[in-house]
Design goal:
single chain, about 70 residues, mainly alpha, 2 strands, about 10% strand, elongated, binds zinc ion
Length: about 70
């Protein structure tokens, strides 16, 4: 089973993966706002995280289905 070891943060407005610089990533905390480097919209980190977690959950479910 392949489980990604990192969550890719996707912009809630344009859907593109937001590239987070490593040093900034360490400083990101709940409630922070991340500016998309594509459409320049401001994303709420908590929302991005929720979406990413949901996607990860679905991914794991899909993988698991093959073993049923
Ligand atoms: Zn965007």
């Amino acid at each position: 089973m392949i489980i990604p070891n990192s969550i890719s943060a996707k912009c809630l407005f344009c859907g593109i993966v937001i590239e987070i610089e490593n040093e900034n990533e360490l400083n990101i905390k709940s409630g922070d706002i991340i500016k998309c480097n594509h459409c320049a919209e401001l994303n709420d980190f908590d929302s991005i995280k929720r979406v990413a977690e949901k996607e990860l959950e679905n991914l794991v479910k899909e993988e698991f289905k093959e073993y049923l």
